[in-house]
Amino acid sequence: MRAVVYHEFGATPQVREVPDPEPAPDGVVVAVEATGVCRSDWHGWRGHDSGIALPHVPGHELSGRVVATGKRVRRWAVGDRVTVPFVCACGTCTQCATGNQQICANQTQPGFTHWGSFAELVALDHADVNLVRLPGSLDSTTAAALGCRFGTAFRAVLRQGRARPGQWVAVHGCGGAGLSAVLIAVAAGARVVAVDVAPEALDLATKMGAETVVQAGDDTAARIRDITGGGAHLSLDCVGLPRTCVASIESLRKHGRHVQIGLMPEDPPIPMHRVIADELTILGSHGLQAHEYPEMLALIERSTMDLQALVARRISLDEAPQALTAMDDPVGGAGVTVVEMRV
Q1: Residue segments in the chain with a per-residue pLDDT below the cut of 70
Q2: Of the CATH numbers 3.40.50.620, 3.40.50.720, 3.20.20.30, 3.30.420.10, which one belongs to the domain with range 149-284?
Q3: Which of 13, 147, 263, 340 has CA 20 to 30 A from 176's CA?
Q4: pTM for this one?
Q5: How far apart are alpha carbons 204 and 181 in whole angstroms?
Q6: d(CA 278, CA 235)
């Protein structure tokens, strides 16, 4: 099969012929139809993830069809059209038993713990626990755009963040995760303040329902507190930089909730005096369990959100290395880039 491979962290990846994967006894092999290019892939390529062994194939936001199954797989058959959370759970640990597969103690992650979906084929673990059946109404490219970023935003906004109608939600960073958070918060009836440095990203956030936008700068938090009459009820850092994390926390009102979505290469200087004095809550959000996908898909179906607007670029596998290395620029472009295998 053809796949994007890198042999050194930070070295330019190459598209190469590599051996086809085989399914584990409880796993499947999926023929990838589309896969998103996510900033998490960039973190892995840059060496920020200790679980990656070289050489490596990145990619974890995918849609495709099952082409081979392990002997212990019961729920899936060749030809099934599927996606998968970026956290593949074991199904047997304490966290899995309590429904928290997104923090499974024995988790694997395509594109991190093993080779991922920047390839024609990808092997996925514990298929009966992790695979999600795709509805016929959802095309492969849009399904790939719902991967890590949209699923993480769904959990961050509605589960961890507990956004409610009429509450102010500040979204720091309007890339794939941030724009997903805007769509989900608006669908939940919240009032959204979108923050970014790029005017085109803010324009897209406005089209997706943000009530107001703020161009990021030294006074970001103060401007949000002014717009919202004291601060956001919920604020999300979808970028993953120390300054955006701090700005998110500083933009909260008393008893506000900060949810960290963006991965960070270094820990930020948390303003703990505000956390204590204003009784703020700081939370993380690590993907979405497979059993939550039906509710996420139901929200999409009953809302008016335009998922097609999330996809800014459709590229081929040969263009994926350049798309990955271009993320050295943290500003980048608006929307999600998706690799389509048939381009």
Answers
A1: 330-333, 343
A2: 3.40.50.720
A3: 13
A4: 0.91
A5: 13
A6: 14
